[in-house]
Design brief:
FAD/NAD(P)-binding domain; alpha/beta; 457 residues; single chain
Amino acid sequence: MAVIGGGSGGYAAARTAAAAKLKTVVIEGGAEVGGLCILRGCMPTKALLYAAEVKYLAEHALTWGVRAGKVSFDFAKVMARKSAQIKDFADFREQQLNDGRFKFIRANAKFLDAHTVQLDNGKKITSKSFVIATGSRVAPTPLPQLDDVGFITSDDAVALKKLPRSLIILGGGAIACEFAQFFQRFGVKVTLIQRSKSLLKEFDADAGTEVEKVFRREGMQVFTSTKLVDAKRKGKFKTISFEQSGKLLSVSAEEILFALGRVPNTASLALENAGVKTEADRVVTNAKMQTSAPHIFAAGDCTGPHEIVHIAIQQGETAVYNILKPKSPRRMDYRLLISVVFTEPQVACVGLTEKAATARGNKFLAASYPFNDHGKSLIMEAKDGFVKLLADAKTGEIIGGACVGPLGGELIHQIVVAMSKRMTVHELAAMPHYHPTLAEIWTYPAEELAEQIQSRR
């Protein structure tokens, strides 16, 4: 088996194959080893966001009667700590790829036919089966003028040597929102411009509304429901013009961060030579992670439908299992899909949102409870946000959960566990929860839904 790509999905496929004694090669053409999550995604951004949170808490320490004095920071040290941690993660991944379980080749590959790839080091690799795990790259700009004006991407933002004084961020998804708050909390004047009517459009609108409220309170300028019109440069400043509610508006800043998503990194693979079907560069697969060429599988961001690390790992493992055992295949199941955005408040959900459940025609009930009426969050002065549960209207089975609030990315896992065992809201409400904890907040919507469903019965 040949794996093209040494990130999270590719490594998961390779170690699974090696454990089954399958002769395996991993081909990685990136300048660095580790994949997006380690090098420019999950790990560096969360390291930076945590630094911003520590700074913010220190600045507001008087809330708890603590005099911290004037809070300052050394941006070079912030970035140096991040870089040192990322180097440790990347070095360990490179060590894993070179530990002898499989052959590791540093080269770019493209298909010559369904079983052969040409490497840019002049060699060819022939394999009975393949797993494509080449990840993603920054999406092209929707505004041609931006290329002339110049901008930075999320890849650039995690490696900045100096903070801009002002910044326009194009986008309102997870990447845009996380960077927006990081820069804002480090003293950059941030303007966020989002095309959709709310931030974080993959979640229910109430989540985006809550995050937008906090952003504005912290001094950020936020524009939603916009259409980009033009980009210009004048001296040291860059200007974006856009339409909103029929009006033409413009904002200027020292720098622009383009954060309108990523696209599959497959253009250089010549997949047509292997008979692999794509849609807008995305490798099309079935639930077995199998492409239109039966012996070629795919995993991770290059195929989707969810660009999340733990999903990429599951996909890589599933692909190899099905290469090894085609007569008893496994299929990906996204019922327990988890999404987390590490803003403050954090935004997390598992399973169905109200929007998705409605679109599917599910008959459900929903209930929520705010953190501003909860003991532990009041102690923490973490009053923004809420938790929400969705339950099947007849059986009470939990079909979705959302947490917008303190440690939302941690708290959501209680609902992941509950849903994995197909628990009902009645069972969740009956579970003991220690007081005072953040986790006990889940009992309130669970009790409300349990009473509603019981009365219906």
